[in-house]
# Entry
Amino acid sequence: MRQERVVVKRPHPVSASYNEHRTPNNELRWLVGGVNSPVRAFRHTGGSPVLLAASGGASVIDVQGRRYTDFIMGWGASILGHRPAVVCAALARTLRQTLLPGLTHPLEIELARRIGEAVPSVEQVRFTTSGTEACLTAVRLARGITRRAKILMFDGGYHGHGESLIGHHGAGTPGALAAETLRAPYNDLLAAKRIMARHGGELACIILEPVTANVGVIAPTAGYLRGLRDLASRDGALLIFDEVVTGFRLARGGAQALYGVTPDLTTFGKIIGGGLPIGALGGPRDLMRHLAPEGHVFHAGTFAGHPLAMAAGIATLDQLRARAPYGRLEQAGARLTRALAKAARAAGVPIQINRVGSMMTVFFTDRPVRNAADARATRREAFAQWAQTLRSHGILIPPSPFEALFLSTAHTAGELDRFVRVSSAAFQALRHTEGP
Ligand SMILES: Cc1ncc(COP(=O)(O)O)c(C=O)c1O
# Structure
């Protein structure tokens, strides 16, 4: 490996807000917290929000012209890297024909067909403009079909910010509605069984990320998804897999193909929009037909099925089918995991790397991380110091210990090696700051 001097600076204090790191003209004051989505504020790792001006391949460039190798990758959306040529060409082609037709465009059918062909549990699709909207619509559909009110979700799961799904971020959600949402620890089938024994007959749905991304990456333990499938079927609740992150990332057929468990409804987002705003829900026709205009469960959207998002999604899914990158992404992920684990061992810094395919989280702990409570018990200061060292050496990872880092087909072996080298220096520095 090429040698490089990696300087580890004193870390910024964690919880520093944008006010402490003003841009010269304090332009960030125009945005609440300096951002439009909380995690972009870097409050978990310290440091100011990064203002990005440009992106391409595996790189992003900030407004000062600094280049970073990016592992945020549009929070999982950019599996082909930033601004892939096939997507840009499809967008240009579409823009020559239309922008917002306002009625159904053939591209909507084309993308729906591609999703259905890749994911056998999906016979019909409804497009939305975000993953949030897809998940809240899926829950509404489940409630409309079953005529039940309660839902079961899992601690640490994130399904967007619909009222019933918002979890501990719930200020502003009426108590009566919040009371209809039950929560269980992830990967604990007994806990789910206990809740179902008490409330099974009142449950409209069980909704979960089959592999979590929003409390860091956690894979389901053996038999867990199958167990939830059986519980839902037994009590007449719908099983919803939120595959906003995992759809077309872990396999063309998503986590349900990887683990061989079929949900009733699936939500999608991110990758299926090829970098444009999107969400979707899908399932068998006998469930989907309950949505308006065929059924009584309402959903509508001015921008639903936007042709630019459809075109970008089609280009992305076609590229994923043609290039079949999942084996290569798995190999790159496995190699990266081994190298990082070795570097941490050499430095005497205990870490756990949770990885499924091209999504991974490094937890600073010596214990396995199997649920949200385990994730919350990890050493966040160590994570923050690692993230800051990476950032100061031109590498961006999600600025939170509770997020997934994403590989794309655009990352080169050289970029992954450099990530390991800088991480290795950060781990060594952690040993020195913390002592034996
Ligand atoms: C698993 C999961 N579901 C739903 C959402 C919400 O999607 P969006 O941000 O497009 O509203 C996210 C966003 O990160 C997510 O990770």
The pocket of pyridoxal-5'-phosphate is lined by residues 75, 130-132, 135, 158-160, 209, 213-214, 242, 244-245, 269, 279 (CB under 6 Å). The CA atoms of residues 163 and 238 lie 19 Å apart. The mean pLDDT is 94. The radius of gyration is 22 Å.
